[in-house]
Amino acid sequence: MGDAATDAAPDAMMTGCIDMDIGMATGDSVVSGDLTGAGDDGQGSCGSTMGEDMAFTWTAPSSAEYTFDT
């Protein structure tokens, strides 16, 4: 599952709920771990509340295509 946005418009952001800024990091396993004790800050469009989550902010280091895998 990923975002294939090509409209150059900013994507939605969970303001105020960011757990970590990962800067412009790229590569395998930039962030890994589990959600035990993470808290329930946000709700996805296809999910329910009461699910532990983590929210990250990331800045593309250059104009290119990037793949996110969860």
Structure description:
The protein is mostly loops and 70 residues long. Helices cover 0% and strands 6% of the residues. It has no helices and 2 strands. It has a two-stranded parallel ribbon with strand order 1-2. The radius of gyration is 13 Å and the shape is globular. The mean pLDDT is 76.
Q: Please describe the biggest sheet, giving its number of strands, its sense, and whether it closes into a barrel.
A: 2 strands, parallel
Integer-rounded radius of gyration: 13 Å
Q: Report the strand count.
A: 2
- Which blocks of ≥5 consecutive residues have pLDDT under 50? none
How confident overall, as mean pLDDT?
76
What's a concise summary of this model?
With 70 residues, this protein is low in regular secondary structure.
SSE arrangement:
Layout: E1 20-21, E2 56-57
Parallel strand pairs: 1-2
Which terms would index this structure?
single chain, 70 residues, little secondary structure, two-stranded parallel sheet, 2 strands, 0% helix
